[in-house]
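User: Please predict structures.

Assistant: First:
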Amino acid sequence: MYRHLLVTVDGAPGGIDAIGHALELARAVGARVTFVLPGAAPDSRLSGARLPEHGAKVEAAARAQGLSHAIAGAGHPAAGGTSPGALARELGCDLIGMAALPPDADPAECRQRQQLLAMCDVPVLVCTSPRPPAAARVIARCLDAHRDVAAMLHGLIAHGGEAAEPAATPEAIDIGGTLAALAALQRTRFGTAAEAQLFAALRTRTESVAAELDELDRQQRRDAQACDALARIASDGQPSPAFDTALARYARGAFEQMGRIEGVIFPAARRYLGDADWAELDRRLAGGAAATPPGANEIDDARRASD
């Protein structure tokens, strides 16, 4: 039985699927997981906004699944310039998990993958994503919103607080305007957009992730308050150490929240939602509908009654 999984991580949709598959397998067999994050420090436990985005995500997803985990990045003695197979042997991993290559993958990348599969003495699990086109489109909408949030956060981290004087660089951004756009995007994500409707549909199909969805609701309210606090601090002027600290806290929370969604909620949705559910979600989102799926209001009423 597998005891230690090595999982390569990137920001592509296929890589996100691989994380979900690997975490579910690790939980099922009681294995621990080491994530490979290109460009991350080894065993990274950096705080705040300086924690690499993917590191914050996979750590949050692994914690939500109750898994023992570690991070090996480009700075790891065994990771620099070595193949996943060599790194797996060095770390004592007995299974490598990675995403299937997309149809338009670079030929050199395809040859490298074929060589790994042919010569690696550690078993390799290639995580494909066999899901209906409607499901792929719904999840893609969610991931588009995640990328938009990440882009705004990276811009704020690069130019806000003590990072630079806004007027000193031609790449300066409007801190206040960006924060307002970020707050609006977050409200839409959890109010009427793809994620909100996906969560509501999932609640009607299973109670197995109700606690996780409730925790995401709590985090969303916390993050909304943190974003409002950021806007108040920014209105006092830049640069500001207080803004840096508040931004680091908010960014980490936002990345962790997205990690829990990508590593826990998406796999659960693939498992519990049927083709008809995905088709209905896709239809609603394509038509710009904001209504929640049938049954969701009853569940919300029951939750409020129990609060």
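Second:
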Amino acid sequence: MKDLARVENWRGGNRLQGPLLRCNLNFEFWMRPWHNGGMRDESLNFLEALVNTPSPTGYETRGQRVWLDYVKAFADETFSDAYGNCVAVLNKGGSPKLMLAAHADEIAMGVNYIDPEGFIYVKKMGGIDPAITKAQRVIIHTRNGPVKGVVGNVAPHLTRQEEDRKLPKMHDLFIDIGVSSAKEAEKLVRVGDPITLNDEFELLRNDLAVARAFDNRIGTFAVAETLRLLQRSKGKLQAEICAVSNVQEEVGLLGARQIAYTLKPDVALVVDVTHATDFPTVNKAQHGNVKIGQGPTVTHGGCNHAEVVNRIEELAKAKNIPLQHEAISNTSGTDTDVIFWTRGGIPSALISLPNRYMHSPVEVVSLADLEKIPELMAAFALSLKKGEEFKVII
């Protein structure tokens, strides 16, 4: 019952007081032992709390509090900056300074217009897909608490021609919150309120899990778990570790720019999701061959520093951690793209978790794959020698 009490603290007590910050977690899940991959109960509890806490891009505060509450037990100090980027430091003053970074925000929508009948029209916040957002349940996050709604959908009986069923654009979507006028709606919501889909964490089968926002709560989870592993080996650490949960990746990699400039690390590892391509209709010749259950991926080229990638590959081999490989195009599409050119250039590398159905309410990942990422990053941190530098030309 001790673990359950801690979860309640995340959901509704202390700093997380209030209806907006409740995760509505399933009691039976918390009492059920985990047998499908070996993840420790406390870590799995943390992952579910993190994923279920709404963190729309630009409004990540609730999720960041969950993250900070967890990592403070493993850090020498924690802090946040003006826009909510959060940092947990271990072995302060060590050298080199290693930044472990992942973004906390999820794709979302925002209230844009309320029509005279009280229906709400939206703008997208990040790469949300209008076609799969129709007929979904949503939560509007207001100053006075959550407001439930549904994204309206016209029944096929009411569409006469094929062209009436064309793919919607974002401005076509409307939300019904059960009111009959703009005046009534405006008592509950206002323009600018963020909106998230009302879908939560579930175990699918074996070690596979499904949720709406693994992108990129799995990253902030992996960073936190790396800190936990390293705290147990603190006496062996030469490097200073800065674990980072940064904001606003989905709208331009913005938080990573801020915190990388502030911290000025000597080397950085970034964690994000990548597209699993092991399901029907995906062109592997175009998008590569990435499979769930075959381990995390490492990306080659571009922002990924060759010597940092080499070290990752060597450690994965030594630790028997399966590793898949990805090629880069012009950019990685992740925070790595902005961290590596900050100031005079920060040697960086991207480690990714295969994720089926990205940017949807049913993202699917392997928890066994996920657990390999903290193991790999902890090994990287422990491999660093005092004052070590990464250069492609020596």
